Amino acid sequence: MAADVVYFNSDYHKNAFLNALPGFTGMFPDFQPSGAKDFIFKKSKTLPLGLNLKRLDSFKENRDSGPAVILWNHRWEYDKNPDGFFKVLFQLKEVGTPFKLVVLGESYKQTPDIFEKAKQNLNEEILHFGYAESFEVYAKWLWKSDILPVTSYQDFFGISAVEAMYCEVYPLLPNRLAFPGHIPEEEQYEFLYDSENDLFEKLNWACQNIDQIRKKQKCRNFVAHYDWSIFSSLYDRHLGKDLMPEW
């Protein structure tokens, strides 16, 4: 309320915050700022994150032929819904669809149990399983991967998904949270899914048609504009206009 302007990572981020605000302030025991939602809404804008995506280019490698390489490159936490992710992979294995697996991301003290179960059940498919010891290792695994199924319950932007897409990894994203904002409307049917079964069907098809998927490589264009080489000027314009209009 004290800010001159409020920026959010995505339209979803902005709407989620503002819609939750009345319930939050309504729980205050004494001073409850009436009209806080409308007051903040009037000075709120969406300004997506700027990222250093071009540094990924230095580590580009040719993809291997063979089965599709499925990627997880998020934190090992419950809000990323690893149970949903591995459940779909277990289904793939049950129906006999060949694939390989790369699991990246940082783990913490209370890592979900599903990671250990997946490490055992998918042992034959695993190419890498664990935290990448350097950015170079991380980037190289992104370039070697083919498909990124995202199952998150909570994401206000999705940096890891954007990084993978920039490295030409084929995304399968939930039709919710901030993810639809990364896909042009005319392309959303192919890359967004509405249910767990929809995700399985699209992932199964992609794995079985991996040669066709590897030839597309167009998703990089969906997110390349987030690089600071382009976005820095956007930030300059916003900050100059909103905070220093005399510029």
**Beta-strand percentage?**
5-15%
- Main sheet overview: 3 strands, parallel
Given the structure, what is the number of helices? 11
Give the strand order of the largest sheet, numbering strands 1, 2, ... along the chain.
3-4-5
Task: Please bin the fraction of helical residues.
Answer: 40-55%
Content-based structural category: alpha/beta
Mean pLDDT over the residues: 93
End-to-end separation in angstroms reads 24 Å
Number of strands: 8
| Radius of gyration, whole Å | 20 Å
Characterization of the model:
The protein has 247 residues and is of the alpha/beta class. Helices cover 43% and strands 12% of the residues. The strands form 3 sheets. A 3-stranded parallel sheet has the order 3-4-5, with helices on both faces. A 3-stranded parallel sheet has the order 6-7-8, sandwiched between helices. Strands 1-2 form a two-stranded parallel sheet. Strand 4, helix 4 and strand 5 form a beta-alpha-beta unit. Helix 3 runs parallel beside helix 4, helix 3 crosses helix 8 and helix 8 crosses helix 9. The protein is globular and about 60 Å long.
Which secondary structure elements does this structure contain, and how are they paired or packed?
Layout lengths: L5 E3 L2 H15 L10 H6 L2 E3 L21 E5 L9 H14 L3 E5 L10 H8 L4 E4 L5 H10 L2 E3 L9 H8 L3 E5 L13 H4 E2 L2 H13 L1 H7 L3 H4 L4 H16 L4
Parallel strand pairs: 1-2, 3-4, 4-5, 6-7, 7-8
